[in-house]
Structure formats: C-alpha cells, structure tokens
Fold this sequence. Notes:
Number of domains: 1
Structural class: mainly alpha
Number of strands: 0
Helix content: over 70%
Shape: globular
Oligomer: single chain
Radius of gyration: 17 Å
Distance between the termini: 20 Å
Amino acid sequence: MLRREAWLLGIRGVLAVVFGILAVVWPGVTVIALALLFGVFAIVTGIEQLVHAMRPATGPSNPVTGFADGKGPRIARAVAGVVGIVVGIMAIVWPGITAVALAILVGVWAVLIGLSDLWLATRQHGGWSLALVGAIAIVAGLFIMVRPAAGALAIAWAIGVYAIISGILLLVAAYQLSHQGSGRGRMAAAH
Length: 191
C-alpha cells in the first residue's frame, strides 16, 4: 500500500515539475495554452486525490474527530479530487476564459489541494515535505486569488514556481514514503 502511495506521489511530483518548467520557460504562452496545461495537471492531480480517498479506513475511531483513522483525510481528498477534476475539465472545455478567471480557478484549486495535503500530513504518514507542499499551495493560492489581474505572465511564473517547488517536495515525500515501506518490510521479515 505504501509503495502505491509513493508511486502516485512520485507521478504527481514529476508532472508538477514538468508543468512548472513549461510555465516558467514559456511564460508568454496564451491563456488558452496555459488553461489546457493546467486542465490536464488538475485532472491528473484530482484522480490521484480520489485514488487516495478510496483507501479503506482502518483502526478504531479517533476520539477527537469521531472518524475511523484515515476517514477524515479520505473525505478531504475526495472533495479535493472532485474539485480538481471539475476545474480541470472546465479549463479544457472553456480554454478561452480570461486570465483573471483562470487565476481564480487556480487559486481556489491550490488552496483546496494545500488543505488536503496538510490534513494528510498531520493525520497520516507523509512527513514534513507533504506538509510544506500543503503550506506552499495555500500561500500560492491565496496570492493568486488576491492579485488575479496581475496578468498572464505573472500568473504563469507564479504557477510555474509553485509547481516546481511542490513537485520537488512531492518527489521527496514519495522517496521518504517508499523507504518507509521498505523499512517496514525488512522489520517484518526479521521477526
């Protein structure tokens, strides 16, 4: 189970880095091209969030939340996944939306993904890097929502830098998670 999670985080990290590099290298791309790139990225991330949400909750109920261990993060991931897929489809179906509308969509999406990552990092494994990805996503999303009229160039740079940093941190989280899983397997074999 941990290997699958690490693999999904790794895919998400690679896609984020590639998307970020494209946005930084070609910041003058039209809003239509940026909307299409963002749409694909949001759909893939939304699918990844839904896959995590489908994991069965295990363990006794948490006395604070009332949820079985992992159920609360499942709900947050399911919501973030559905929103990501819907936002991604909207960006692909209506690529001619203005830079301001795209900025607001990206900002809302980044805040929701950030909240989901923070929740998961505090409730389950994922470590400091996943929490940092969540915090960066929230800050980037709020910045973009506060200044949506900054123009397509500034939005492309902000999205690109955010995607590169979060992609690298997601790759670190995937690496940590994959080694956490292999360490457990060795410990179980020794006993």
